[in-house]
Amino acid sequence: MGKEKGFALSPIRAREMRRFLQGRGYQVVAGQHKHLKLKHDTFGDVLLPLRPGANLSYVAVKQIASALGMPPEELLKQAR
User: Fold this and answer.
1) What is the model's pTM?
2) Cα angle, residue 67 at apex, residues 62 and 69 outer, rounded to 5°
């Protein structure tokens, strides 16, 4: 058996998360390489993949939830 590679993906797509974050006051700024950077006056910065149809990894969901100060499970519920 071969080793699994990559990260498990969440059911949330990048476009859904972007819409959710912009609804909470995040603004898009110039990003890095293949990512879109979103800034907020109060919360931490967030990076999203440029491909809007791409599902976010659970690692990315955890990082975004941390920036918003909420548990990842709550973020998944609210973003859908």
Assistant:
1) 0.84
2) 90
